[in-house]
Amino acid sequence: MKTYKLHFKEKESDVTIISESNSAIKKAKKSFFYQRNVLEKYAYKNKEFLTSFSPIKVESNEKIINIMAEAGYLCDVGPMASVAGAIADIMVEVMQKVNLENYVPARIALVENGGEIAINSVQPMKVGLYTGPNDLNFNIGFLIEEKDCPIGIGTSSATIGHAFSFGDADAVTIFAENATLADASATRVANVVKGNDIEKSINIGLDIAQDIVGIRGAIINRENKVGKVGKIPKLIKIEGNADYLLEQKKS
Fold this sequence. Notes:
The chain has 251 residues and is α+β, with helices and mostly antiparallel strands. It has a single domain, classed as ApbE-like domains (T-fold). Helix content is 37%, strand content 26%.
C-alpha cells in the first residue's frame, strides 16, 4: 500500500505524519495546531501545569489536558512529561475517526512528535532506535505489525535532545498501549537510571517499568549496556548511516 509522509516543525515541535491517505494527514496536521493552541492557553492560565515535575490536579473539558494529567499520576511525573505523546495519540485518533462527511478512516496512521510515536496500522512499520553517542546507534529497530497496534512508543534520554532528565540513560524506550503513557513512563524510568553502577541502575529502571500499569515492554541503554523487560516488538537490523537516516526521516 502506497504511503505519504509529511514533516513539519512548529516552535519546539518536530512532527512526522505517515498514512496512505493525504486527507488523513491534513486532518492530523490541523489537529496538531488545535491541540497546541489548547495547551498554550491552558498553561498560560495554569503555570503549574507547565512547570511541575510532579502530578497535579486539573480542571478542564479538553481531552489532552486530562490524559496528560492522568499519565502524570500513573507515572509520578508532571503532566508536561507526556505532552508530545498525547498530541501524537490524538492526531492518530483523528486520522481514524469516522465522521459524517463520508471520510474514510486511515488504515495506516503513524505520528512521530519529537521522538514520541503513536501507531495504528494494518501495514508493518519500521521504527529505528537512536541512542546517540552509543555503539548501538541506529543498529537496531523494531517492526511494528498489525498485531502490535495500537501502540505508543516513548523515549527519554539524558544525552540526546532538549528534554530534561534527572537520570543518566542514553535512551529509555517504552512500549505501551498509547503514546501518552509511553512518553510519561519513559521520563519516569529515565529519571532513576543513574549512579556509578551502570548495570544496577538499568535494573532499577526495569523494575520501575514493570510496576506501571499499561506498559508492555521497556529497553534501557546506558554506556553500551542494555536491559529489557516485557513484550517488545520484533527486533530488526537497521542498515545505513545514522545521520543520513535521520535526514531521510525528515524528507
